[in-house]
C-alpha cells in the first residue's frame, strides 16, 4: 500500500495527520500556555567601569556552573561606595540572556529590624515576581520558593547582607546568587561560595575612570591620583566629584583637590576606614536651593525612600528638578517597585552625610513632622479607597494629597512604601507624637492583613497600643489591641491573641461606640472556631452582629462570620437563611467585596446538606467574581472547594479543570 502524507482541513485550517470526528464536537478551544513572568528588578549600570576584571571572571566562572543546572554563589564584601553594586549590575546587564527566568533584587536593609530580617516577607516578594502566590503560612514560603526556582534559571542579587544565615535561608534550587555585604562573610565558603573582598580603586584605575568622564586635557596624572586618594578610591565618591567637573568645564582639578584638603575632618568618619565627609561637603555646597532642600529631606526622613510627592508635601520647590539634580551627581538612584509611582533611594553614605547636614537645621522638627503627616495622610487615603465602608475610629485625612485610581493601586503603593511606614511609625513613637502613631497603624490594617506582613504588623501595633494609651483614646486602644490579636490569630498564636483581647476588654467600659466593642466579639469568635468550639463562636458572632446593627457593611460582615460558625455547628439551614439576607443587602448596596465572599460560604452550607449541584454553582460564582476583581487567594479557595465537590460527584473532568486553574493561579 502506498504511504502518503495525510492532510486534513478542519474549519478552514489545514492539519497534518488523521482526524477522527464523531458527529458534532461543538466549539473547540485551544488555550495557549500562560508564560510565567520574567522579572527585571536589577537596575541598569551607570557610565564607565574599570579595574574589576578578576571579580567579573569570578562571576563568569559561577555562570558556567549554573548553565549545567547547578547553583552558583558569589559574595562581594567591602566598604560602602566601593562599587559592589555597580559591579553586579554591570554583570547582570551584560549577561541577561543567560537568565531566561529573569533577575530579582532584594535590599535586606529594607526588611531588617532590630538585627533580624523578615525573610518570609522577602520571599513573598520573590514569589509574586515569579508569578507564584505566596502561601499564607510563613514557613511554607521557603519550600514554595525552592519549588518555584527548581526549573528556572534566575539571577538573584541580595544587597546589604549582614549574616551568612540570611543568605542560606534565601538560596534557590538553581540559578546564580550574588551577594553584596559590608561585612566579611567567610562562613559562606562552606556553602560553596566564592567570597571576594572588593577593595578601593587603585590610583591608576581611579584616574582612568575620571579621565573617561572629563577627557585627557584636564588635570595631571598627579592631580588625578591625589583626587582618587582623597575620595578613598571609592567609585561612589568619584562619581559625585566627577559630575561636578563635568558640569563646570572651567573648574580645575587642582582646585577640587585643594577644596577637598580644606574640608578634611569636617564630618566624623562616614564609613569605617574611609572619610567621605569632605567629598560630600563639596558636592552639597554646589547644589541649587531646591537640591539642598531635597538633600535635607533625605537627612531628616527616617525611611529609605523619597519621591516627588513627598518632597512637594513638605515644601521642596520644584521637586522633580531637585530629584533630577541629585540623580545627576549620583546622590539618588531610582527604585523599581510594583506600583507606578517614581521612588528614589540614596546610598547609605549619602544618607549619613545628609543626616549630618540636616542635624542642626532650625526647622528640622517641622520638616520631620511634615514627613510623618504625609505618610499618615496618604495611608488614610489608601485605606479609604481600598475599603470605603470599614470601621475606623480616626477622622479622614490626606484629602489634599495625591489620591489613587483604584484599591489595587492603593495597596501596591502601601506595599512599596512598607519600609518607610515602619520607620516613620517608630520615629513618631520616639518623638512622642502619639496621635500620629496609632492613626498610621489603623490605616495600615489592610496592607498588613492582605499581604501578611506579620513582623511589621506586630512591631508597629505594639507601639500603636502604647501611643493610644498616652493619647487617652480607649477606643483606639481597643482597635490597636484587636488588630494585634488578629495578627497572632493568623500566625496560630492563639494564647497571645487571647491575651490581647483580655487586655482590650478592660477598656470596654470607657468606650461608647458599640461597633468598636463588636470587633472584640468578632475576633473572639474566630478564636472559638480555631479552638473547635463552634457553639461558642455562634454566640460571639451573634453579639458582634448585634453590635453592628444599623451599619450595613458591618451587618454583612458579621452575618458572613456567623454563617461559617453555624455550618461548623451543624446548622447549615440557618446559615443559608442568614446568607440570603446578607447577599441581598450586599447586592443592593453594591458591597462588591462581600458579594464576592458570600457565595463561597453558601457553597459550604449546600455541601453540608448534600446539595452538591447547588454547592458547585455557588463556588463557581465566587471563583468568577474573585477572578474579575483580581483576588487570586479567594479564587484559589473557590477552586480548591470545586475540586473536592467534583471528586465527590465523580466528575473527573471538572476536577481537572479546577486543578488546571489552580496551577495557573499559583504559577
Task: Characterize the structure shown.
- The chain has 667 residues and is α/β, with parallel strands linked by helices.
- 58% of the residues lie in helices and 7% in strands.
- The chain has 30 helices and twelve strands.
- A five-stranded parallel β-sheet has the order 4-7-8-3-9, with helices on both faces. A three-stranded antiparallel β-sheet has the order 10-12-11.
- Strand 1 and strand 2 (13-16) form a beta hairpin.
- The longest helix has 23 residues, at 364-386.
- Mean pLDDT is 88; it is low at 1-31 and 263-274.
Comma- or semicolon-separated keywords:
alpha/beta; 667 residues; 7% strand; three-stranded antiparallel β-sheet; globular
Write the layout of secondary structure elements.
Elements lengths: L6 E4 L2 E4 L36 H15 L3 E7 L6 H11 L8 E5 L4 E2 L2 E2 L1 H11 L8 H11 L6 E5 L4 H6 L5 E7 L12 E4 L5 H12 L6 H10 L4 H13 L5 H10 L14 H9 L3 H12 L4 E2 L1 H6 L5 H10 L4 E3 L7 E3 L2 H11 L5 H23 L20 H10 L1 H14 L2 H10 L1 H7 L2 H17 L3 H17 L3 H12 L8 H17 L3 H14 L4 H17 L3 H17 L3 H17 L3 H18 L2 H18 L2 H15 L1
Parallel strand pairs: 3-8, 3-9, 4-7, 7-8
Antiparallel strand pairs: 1-2, 5-6, 10-12, 11-12
Helix pairs in contact: 3-4, 6-7, 6-8, 7-9, 8-10, 11-13, 11-14, 15-16, 15-17, 15-18, 17-18, 17-20, 18-20, 18-21, 20-21, 21-22, 21-23, 22-23, 23-24, 23-25, 24-25, 25-26, 25-27, 26-27, 27-28, 27-29, 28-29, 29-30
